[in-house]
Write the structure tokens for this entry.
Amino acid sequence: MSGFREEERTVPSGTGRAALLVLADGRFPAGGHAHSGGAEPAVRAGRIRDAGELAAFCRGRLHTTGLTAAALAAAAARGLDPLELDAAADARTASPALRATARKLGRQLMRAARATWPSAELAALAAARPRGAHQPVVLGLTARSAGLTPGDAAHCVVYETVSGPATAAVRLLSLDPFEATAVLARLAPEMDAVAQRAADAAGRAAHEGTDALPAASAPLLDIMAETHAAWPVRLFAS
């Protein structure tokens, strides 16, 4: 696609691991705080009632949708065509509600990314997808613009995958925030492993195409997302 090509990148001055902390920070103005990652409908359905069930929910999300999204982000950070990756993300997102959410979050992240780490590649994707590309694709391209690695992009996604529901559970259940943070800490080794799998898959996709990327899914999350989108009153957007 015109405007997108795989190339060697020079790390911009002033970037590095600190840039990853900025991108992964919950205070980065990308709109994620308004979304529960499926925790709100799971709480209402009685599937998350305490820290143990939160951990099980996060683990399931991490190894399915988290892996898929992390690989898309890592592939974008490697320089694969973001329009092809956006189409691949669409194909891997069965729920119309989740597709709409992913594009809304992508649009919000794009605004923050272009203000923070402006690049021609971000500008080209914004022009090609004015209503928003899928959030993991935008995140990967943001990481690339910040001089981060595909592995960094994957780590950012897997952390978001579990931190969103954990933060939401504190509000939804009045869960002790220390317990919620402990859930994240105990999942850290699995997060590292999933991020590595995602980065490895992105490496294969650079030679084999987007079909080499994971397509793990969680059908119950899709079903709950469609139900949640129809609620007249809800605390979180998704």
In short: The chain has ten helices and no strands. The chain has a mean pLDDT of 91.
